[in-house]
C-alpha cells in the first residue's frame, strides 16, 4: 500500500547564535490510508516536536534542517508559506493536547468552526453552519445546533475535545496528527474518544498519528507503533508484535514500567537513570548509559535494522523474543 505520509530522515534543530541543539536526528516513519500509527516515548523524546515539524508549526529558533515530509509524494517542506497555509488544516490537521489552548475562549463554537471552514473553502454562513452541525453530530455531541452557540468554557473537557476533533475533521484531511488529546480526560471519556477516532479513521480512510506516553492507549487503538528516544525512532512495527516481544531494551523498559495486576506489595520496575539532555547526548547509542545490555560496540551509533518485513530496531543487540 502506498503511504499517505512518508517522513524521511527528518532533522530538526534549535539554531541560536552560540549554540545549535539537534532535537530530532533522522526520524523516518510512514502511515497509510486508514492506518493509526502510535508514537510513544518518555517526555522529551521528541514526539510532539515530530508532529510540529511535520505540520511546520515550529517557532524560531526551531527549524527543520534536513529531510523530507512527503504527503502523497509532495514534499511539504519545500512549499512556500502561503501554500503551506492552504494545506495545513485542510490536508494535514492537528489535534492538540489541551482543547482550551486550541479553542478561542472569547468566540462561540460556531464562529470558530465557520472560520475554519471558510479559510479553505468559499461558502455562505448558512452552508458553513450546516457543515459545522454535521461535524459536531458525527463526533457524538448531543444537540449540536445549541452547542454551536456555546463558548468553550461552557462545555466539559470531553465536549471541548470532541469539538477540537470535529474541527480537525471539517475538511476530511488526508492525515491527522493527535498530540496526546485524551491526557486530561477521565477514563470513561477517554474510551469514548478513542472509539470515536478509530471509527472515523476506518470509515473515512484518514491516516492518524497518535502521540502519547500511554502504552495502554496505543495497545487498544494503533495498528503500528513507533518508539522514540532522545530524538530518534528506536523501534517500529505492528503494535501487537512490538508489545508482545519488544526488540529494543528501551521498549522493554517502557512496558515493564507499566503497573500490572498481581503486583501488590512488589516494587515497581523502572528504567534506571533519566533521558539525557539534548545538549549532553552521549556518543553512540543514546540509551546505552541506562541499558543493562550495553557493550563496547554501543559507543557507536546503531542504524535502524530490519528484523523482518514489518519491524525495525535501532540496536546492536536486539532482545530475543521473550527476553526481559
TrEMBL record:
UniProtKB keywords: ATP-binding, Cell membrane, Membrane, Nucleotide-binding, Transport
PROSITE patterns from the UniProt entry: ABC_TRANSPORTER_1 (PS00211), ABC_TRANSPORTER_2 (PS50893)
One term of GO molecular function: ATP binding
Subcellular location(s) of the protein: Cell inner membrane
Top-level taxon in the UniProt lineage: Bacteria
Gene Ontology biological process: peptide transport; transmembrane transport
Keyword ATP-binding applies: yes
GO cellular component, as recorded: plasma membrane
Homology family: Belongs to the ABC transporter superfamily.
NCBIfam families the record matches: oligo_HPY
Record-given protein name: Oligopeptide/dipeptide ABC transporter, ATP-binding protein, C-terminal domain-containing protein
Organism encoding this protein: Pontivivens marinum
Lineage of producing organism: Bacteria, Pseudomonadati, Pseudomonadota, Alphaproteobacteria, Rhodobacterales
Amino acid at each position: 500500500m502506498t503511504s499517505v505520509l512518508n517522513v524521511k530522515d527528518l532533522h530538526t534543530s534549535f539554531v541560536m547564535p552560540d549554540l545549535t541543539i539537534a532535537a530530532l536526528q533522522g526520524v523516518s516513519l510512514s502511515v497509510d490510508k486508514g492506518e493509526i500509527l502510535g508514537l510513544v516515548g518518555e517526555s522529551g523524546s521528541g514526539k510532539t516536536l515530530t508532529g510540529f515539524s511535520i505540520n511546520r508549526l515550529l517557532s524560531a529558533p526551531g527549524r527543520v534542517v534536513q529531510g523530507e515530509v512527503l504527503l502523497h509524494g509532495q514534499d511539504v517542506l519545500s512549499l512556500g508559506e502561503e501554500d503551506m497555509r492552504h494545506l495545513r488544516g485542510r490536508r494535514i490537521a492537528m489535534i492538540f493536547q489541551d482543547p482550551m489552548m486550541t479553542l478561542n475562549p472569547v468566540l462561540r463554537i460556531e464562529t470558530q468552526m465557520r472560520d475554519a471552514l471558510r479559510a479553505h473553502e468559499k461558502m455562505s454562513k448558512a452552508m458553513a453552519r450546516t457543515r459545522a452541525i454535521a461535524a459536531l453530530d458525527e463526533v457524538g455531541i448531543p444537540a449540536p445546533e445549541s452547542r454551536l452557540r456555546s463558548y468553550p468554557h461552557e462545555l466539559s473537557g470531553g465536549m471541548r475535545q470532541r469539538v477540537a476533533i470535529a474541527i480537525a475533521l471539517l475538511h476530511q484531511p488526508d492525515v491527522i496528527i493527535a498530540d496526546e488529546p485524551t491526557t486530561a480526560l477521565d477514563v470513561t471519556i477517554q474510551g469514548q474518544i478513542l472509539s470515536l477516532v478509530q471509527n472515523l479513521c476506518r470509515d473515512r480512510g484518514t491516516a492518524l498519528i497518535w502521540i502519547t506516553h500511554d502504552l495502554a492507549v496505543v495497545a487498544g487503538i494503533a495498528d503500528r507503533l513507533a518508539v522514540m528516544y532522545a530524538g530518534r525512532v528506536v523501534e517500529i512495527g505492528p503494535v501487537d508484535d512490538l508489545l508482545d516481544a519488544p526488540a529494543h531494551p528501551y521498549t522493554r523498559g517502557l512496558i515493564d514500567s507499566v503497573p500490572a495486576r498481581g503486583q501488590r506489595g512488589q516494587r515497581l520496575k523502572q528504567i534506571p537513570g533519566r533521558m539525557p539532555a539534548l545538549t549532553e547526548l552521549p556518543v553512540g547509542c543514546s540509551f546505552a548509559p541506562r541499558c543493562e545490555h550495553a557493550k563496547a560496540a554501543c559507543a557507536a551509533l546503531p542504524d535502524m535494522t530490519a528484523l523482518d518485513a514489518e519491524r525495525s530496531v535501532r540496536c546492536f543487540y536486539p532482545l530475543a523474543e521473550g527476553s526481559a
